[in-house]
Design brief:
This protein is α+β, with helices and mostly antiparallel strands. 35% of the residues lie in helices and 19% in strands. A hairpin with a 3-residue loop joins strand 3 and strand 4.
């Protein structure tokens, strides 16, 4: 890869907060063939998560990365989310549950046991 292209990629990564990340949340939504929850519900959860992280100043350089996942392979009880580095897997991630995950886990550093499927740090 051309060094100038690599530097452009690094600049993009810095701009979205990769260098500042403390946590990364993946949310299962927008599947072609939804199984864990219907597509509308998953997309509503994603829209909430995205806007809430921005509203709280957590996205971009605020320390929390977010990624929309097509499928996290737990095809029940969705929307499903996983937060790293703790490897905390959550079920029922509609907006009220996501708000708790944002406040208690992403901000407060405490896993939300009530909605935890399991935790497996990597």
């Amino acid at each position: 890869m051309d060094p100038s292209e690599r530097e452009r990629l690094r600049a993009i990564a810095r701009g979205v907060g990769v260098a500042d990340a403390r946590r990364h949340i993946f949310l299962c939504c927008d599947q072609r063939n939804p199984k864990c929850c219907d597509q509308e519900r998953g997309l509503a959860a994603w829209d909430f998560l995205k806007s809430r992280l921005r509203e709280l100043g957590l996205s971009e350089r605020g320390g929390v990365l977010r990624s929309k996942a097509n499928c996290l392979r737990i095809c029940q009880g969705g929307p499903i989310a996983v937060v790293y580095p703790e490897g905390a897997w959550y079920h029922s991630c509609d907006p009220p549950v996501l708000e708790r995950i944002v406040q208690e886990h992403l901000v407060g550093g405490k896993v939300v046991e009530e909605f935890l499927i399991l935790a497996k740090p990597l």
